[in-house]
Specification:
Length: 304
């Protein structure tokens, strides 16, 4: 009895690996690798950004001849503390009072803007109620109105309230800002999932409890950025405090204006020294909270 042997079907040879994968990886790595031109552009940008600050401190540490010197001095001088003492003792500018007032105004406005912006942003992003889109449109429209248009009616309102020359006049009108509400609304729409809100409701949390315990921690990166931007904007605001306040109740920007225009001949050293002193609180705020802001942004991007 003969046996039939069936020839085994030969297995196809494995395909050779494509050589293009290595090229793709190298091209991707090259795409995310900074070129020397990138470093040059970054260095130029950094130098141009910090030069006005450095120049303010350099002139503040010298005398008035440094302003018109050619070539200009690029190293600090020995007179910074004496110039700073002269600015702080200037009775016309009330510079110390201006620093205190600016700190109070900026802190109050920042805390209020962050609180109300996160609260309203959460409502517009995750809650359902009638007229939500119409109200959001109105808020966006308020961002399109220039500040100069509001000055006259706002000043008349402050006169009626008898708030002129008081800090309420530069705090109350800016406790809520449309930009903050819109910014937090956009961030909350993508950073907070609907499932997270539903899970909090299933656990029996009220809307306020959900905001405070679930939403607010998730909004921390955006709230930190908004707080820093609001503090800087309020600290540097000049036009409205100049209109509604006088020299007896100044902010730091009004005090700087008095230093620049309060004499027959402008003392540039006092102006630059006052500017340098006004910059110091902003630098302190950024140094103290900058790492937390960057860390919050990175944490939010990793969670996303």
């Amino acid at each position: 009895m003969s046996t039939l042997t069936r020839a085994a079907t030969p297995k196809p040879a494995p395909a050779a690996p494509k050589k293009t994968s290595g090229r793709v990886r190298s091209a991707s790595a090259a795409l995310w690798t900074a070129s020397p031109l990138t470093y040059v552009a970054l260095i130029i940008t950094i130098v141009l950004s910090i030069f006005p600050i450095v120049w303010s401190f350099i002139v503040a540490s010298r005398d008035n001849s440094a302003v018109t010197a050619i070539p200009p001095p690029l190293t600090p001088g020995p007179n910074f503390f004496s110039n700073a003492q002269r600015v702080l003792e200037n009775s016309d500018a009330n510079f110390i009072y201006g620093l205190i007032n600016s700190a109070v105004v900026s802190s109050s406005v920042t805390i209020s803007v962050v609180f109300f912006s996160t609260l309203a942003g959460f409502a517009f992003a995750k809650l359902k109620f009638k007229g939500k889109n119409a109200l959001l449109l109105i808020i966006i429209m308020t961002m399109m109105i220039p500040t100069q248009i509001n000055i006259i009616p706002l000043y008349l309102l402050m006169v009626k309230f008898d708030w002129t020359n008081t800090l309420q006049a530069v705090i109350v009108p800016f406790l809520v800002q449309g930009f903050g509400v819109f910014m937090i609304r956009q961030y909350a729409s993508s950073a907070i999932s609907d499932e997270l809100i539903e899970a909090a409701r299933v656990d029996g949390a009220s809307t306020w409890r959900t905001y405070w315990s679930v939403v607010l921690p998730a909004l921390r990166p955006a709230a930190a950025v908004l707080g820093l931007l609001t503090f800087m904007q309020t600290w540097n605001d000049f036009l409205w405090p100049y209109v509604v306040l006088n020299g007896d109740t100044p902010t730091v920007q009004v005090s700087l204006n008095i230093l620049a225009t309060g004499y027959y001949k402008t003392d540039y050293v006092q102006v630059f020294t006052g500017t340098a002193l006004a910059i110091v609180p902003l630098l302190i705020v950024f140094i103290v909270f900058g790492r937390q802001i960057i860390g919050g942004i990175m944490e939010g991007s990793i969670k996303a």
